[in-house]
């Protein structure tokens, strides 16, 4: 179980760092910070990293045994990233902020790209961590 926790946390943080950097370039971090009542990009980055680690941890603790190869890890990560794109910025965040849900605009498409990159990195890092410990 400890291996799964480590792999999930490291994969989530690695993917979250890259996705967070993209979000910073797009000016999206203050919106993430608003989830906790702030407008600071730094706070938004921190919130984003916590979310990134926690959702990765959930995946890997439940399904870590399926991360058997880099190709499989990448595919699972891409699917998980797409799932969280639908759940996060298209559903949960708009509901929390009193905005319309499932709005597909340019920002949403950039967010999809970021979530796919997050998932891809998550999956590959999880396989790498688990392979080192097997």
Automatic annotation (TrEMBL):
The chain crosses the membrane at residues 12-33, 45-67, 74-96, 108-130. Keywords: Membrane, Transmembrane, Transmembrane helix. The keyword Transmembrane applies. This is Uncharacterized protein. It comes from Nesterenkonia aurantiaca.
């Amino acid at each position: 179980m400890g291996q799964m926790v480590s792999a999930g946390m490291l994969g989530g943080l690695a993917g979250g760092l890259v996705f967070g950097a993209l979000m910073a370039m797009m000016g999206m971090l203050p919106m993430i910070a608003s989830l906790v009542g702030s407008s600071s990009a730094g706070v938004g980055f921190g919130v984003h990293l916590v979310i990134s680690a926690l959702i990765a941890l959930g995946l890997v603790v439940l399904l870590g045994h399926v991360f058997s190869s880099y190709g499989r890890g990448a595919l699972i990560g891409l699917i998980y990233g797409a799932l969280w794109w639908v759940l996060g910025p298209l559903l949960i965040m708009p509901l929390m902020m009193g905005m319309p849900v499932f709005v597909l605009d340019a920002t949403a498409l950039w967010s999809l790209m970021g979530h796919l990159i997050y998932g891809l990195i998550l999956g590959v890092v999880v396989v790498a961590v688990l392979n080192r410990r097997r």
